[in-house]
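We append the chain.
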Amino acid sequence: MSSSRRSKFEIWAEVLELCLREKRTQTWLLRETRLKTSAIKETLQFLLSRNLIEKFNEDDVTKYSTTHHGEEALKRFYTLVNEYFDIY
C-alpha cells in the first residue's frame, strides 16, 4: 500500500538534495517541493537549526545551501533507507 504523502524525513532529504549543488531561494524550493509556504518555512528553519543548510544573502536575495554536515546526513539517510527498506 503506497501513500502519496511524504514523511518529514523525505521532505528534509528532498530540500537537502535540492540545495546540494546550487544555492536556492525559498520561492524556488516552494515550487519544486510543492509545499505550502508555512511548511517550507518550517522545514528551512528546522534544517538551519541543525546546521544542515546555511543561509546566504546575495543581492538582497536570501538563498539556502546544504552544508557539509547536511551532505553527510543525506548520505547516511540514503544508506539507511537502502539498507533497511529497499524492496527491489
